[in-house]
Specification:
By secondary structure, the chain is mostly helical. The protein has one domain: Glycerol uptake facilitator protein. It has 9 helices and no strands. The protein is globular, with a radius of gyration of 16 Å. The relative contact order is 0.19.
Length: 198
Amino acid sequence: MKTGIGKALAAGILICMGCIVNLKVGGGIPGAILFSAGLWFVVNFDAELFTGRVTREQYSWPQKGLMLLLNLMGAGVCGLLASFFLPEIRESAAGIVTAYADPLKVLWQAVMCGICMYLATTPPKAKDAGSRLPFVVYGVALFILSGYGHSIALAGYAAIARQIAWWVIPLAAAGNGLGSYLIKWLLETAQKKETEKP
């Protein structure tokens, strides 16, 4: 499967829209729940978000890299436009991005976010497992309220604030991927052991 340019750009824009509404309502539980609308649209319209698809085998690593780049571009342009048209949210965005200053903390926050994103976006195995909406809302609320680092969202916040250290977003992307692969491996290993029981 090839990375779709439009779908990957759209995913970045939708995540940035979540950033904007989170800032507009002042964060907290309302911001976390409303942010989840951005990810819900990503999932519902099958947009291609790196943090939701990094573990999927149908994409090659170059395709995943392109997806990440396009996500960052979509979020960055959307955030930059928001910084001009909604200048009142710039200070709040700056408060978020300045919290990402310690590389080890950024990596840990990003790994934890990767776990949340895997759980929020991975389709259930059973066809009758129901809507993904609760998974999306809980996954997003968990990473937003805990302060975990989502690389695409950080690109949106950074563009709105017009500031961030150059290394934060690549490190967050690596951490997001690591967290996704870690929880996938743990869950699949446990499931495999369950199925192998006599």
